Amino acid sequence: MTPGPETDPNADGAAQRLLPAALLDLPLAGLPLTDGVRSRLRSKGMLSVADALGTEHKWLTETEAAAVRAALTDALGPALGALAASRVYDGPALRARLLAPFRDADQRLLAAAVGVDEPPQPRQVLVRLAGDSELDDCLQVLRSTLAQRCSDLISRMQVELENGFDKHEGLLTRELLEPGSLLSEICAESEDTQLGLRLAAFCLPNLCHLHRGALCAVTSRGFRELMRTLPLLAPQHLLPLPVTELSAQLRRRNIDAPHGLLTHLLHTELRAVIETDAELGEVAAPDQSTPAARLSELLEEFSGPATLNDLTLAYRQRFRSTSRSRLLRHLSENDAFVRIEQDVWSLRRWHLERLAAVSDLVEQTARRVSTADHRIDLIELLAAEHGPETAWLVLDQLRGDPRVRLLGRGEACGADLKQSSVMRRLQRSFRRAAGDVVKGLFLDNQPASQRRLVRRLLEHNRAFVKTASDRIDTLANYPFNPERMEQLIQLVFAQLNGRAGYAQVEAIKDLVDRAELGGRWLTPSLLADILRRNGPFEVLAPNIVALKDLHLPRALARSARQALRDIGEAVTVDDVLRERPELTGFRDCLAELLVDDPMVQSPDGRYFVLS
């Protein structure tokens, strides 16, 4: 091949190595070009495609260059179209194409915002990556650059989204993506199955919003407005409600909520189930399934035993919120489940044969425990000889044995032992002290092996009371025999149950004093601690007593989380109260609730943001 007058030898060599000879030898004269363009090409020695690839044709006008480009497209169009239609965007190729137009700093910001290499980062991390620039402006520049440099990808993505939203009424999940579409290929070929959805939400914010793994046919601002309004229209106590009626109410408020999106939010955010009524059609009804039924469903999906952490994460994703302690209580109290390791739970019906096989070992263990005069660590005793699963199954079978008392953490003692040795020792110590003691010093003097147990007894056992922030006494030193304690509990329960379900502890103390159950010695903090330990109450720091059945901490945390979700950035408790004025009366306990909430992050205890 004879290069033209402005040939780039490196480009020429690359073309010869990579392109087939039939394409390189394709004569330009055979292309549908005008006589003027053909003459110009011949005058520069450009007779074939190879000549055109190896030449810097700055001497061609834009019109002439466009003519050559169009002619080559027409000649190769069918083959290129077939290749484009079958193109698969695997993870490495997609990553390279997305990040190629940007500098290193912008690449890091884009990867963190979309979640290219790792899960998408929260806003505070993106703010640090943006440096001195405004984050939203930086993200918009990234979107504009992608729209220019990856226009074919973005355009195809937009068409697929519009068609998918029309077909599925405003909602697209990974399962609903059209087979063979760009988004489905990205999700299928990438190790991260949600990457395609996040990429679409980032590149097309005016078309969609990503929520719980689903693309919604609304903008982020429209989604926030919808989530502020929908709970007001469909509170739990008004369900069931026709879905068409809810949709009509939203339209009257100029809020767009396609049917698929509306049912998705009713299920994921409001915990409603969509049922069909003979007269009303589709209705949103309260979800009547119990936590135990939900846990059974999750274990069925796991197709085997699961750790408590895995169950907690799956439960939160499916049913909004819960805590490890709450799920542990349901797993422990329901006979449908059985623990097979320290932190692993399973369905009992999967282990019926194994449970029957250990019946003889259960009987031997029960006799040994009932004749011992001290507690026995059954897990340590049985696991060494029979394995951990057998040890936990034996412990499960001993729960209903009248000869055995389970003490927690795999320990047991005989049922005829009325009081544990630790409790007997503690009560002797308090009798010698003849009054309250400093909790911290008292714990330091306990045996190291029992310090954790003693701390829990001092904090929760009914035999003790907290007289000050770090002082502990025994309840026996105060005038509350069983009759007076029962009278106190009934009085406070009736007071709270007949009102909002909670009250300031000072108001409760006035009521108790008028009933001659208290006096100057009964301080508000002492009364709150007695009620917490002995009745169906819980205390919200620093001075609110509420009925346990009210689940007030959970309701407050949920409302505060919604405020954080609406605000969308790290804020203080005061900012949350401005967004939710109805929480003002709980200002003093909100920070503690948010710190304990596993769905909220707080690096300094002052600023809070959803994780």
Compile the SSE list and pairings.
Elements (H helix, E strand, L loop, with lengths): L8 H10 L2 H4 L10 H9 L5 H5 L8 H24 L5 H9 L4 H11 L8 H8 L4 H15 L1 H18 L2 E3 L8 H8 L5 H9 L5 E3 L2 E3 L3 H14 L7 E2 H10 L6 H10 L3 E6 L3 E6 L4 H12 L3 E2 H12 L4 H10 L3 E5 L2 E4 L4 H6 L1 H13 L4 E2 H9 L1 H10 L6 E5 L2 E4 L6 H13 L3 E2 H6 L6 H10 L3 E5 L2 E4 L7 H16 L4 E3 H10 L9 H11 L2 E4 L3 E4 L4 H16 L5 H7 L7 H10 L3 E2 L7 E2 L1
Structure description:
Mean pLDDT is 83; it is low at 1-11 and 83-88. The chain is elongated and about 115 Å long. It has a three-stranded antiparallel beta sheet with strand order 1-3-2, sandwiched between helices. Strands 4-6-5 form a three-stranded antiparallel beta sheet. Strand 11 and strand 12 form a beta hairpin. The longest helix is centred in the first third of the chain and has 24 residues, at 62-85. Helix content is 55%, strand content 12%. The protein has 611 residues and is mainly α.
Helical fraction: 40-55%
Give the count of helical stretches: 31
How confident is the prediction overall: mean pLDDT?
83
Distance between the termini: 62 Å
Going by helix content, strand content and strand pairing, the class is mainly alpha
Tell me the number of strands.
20
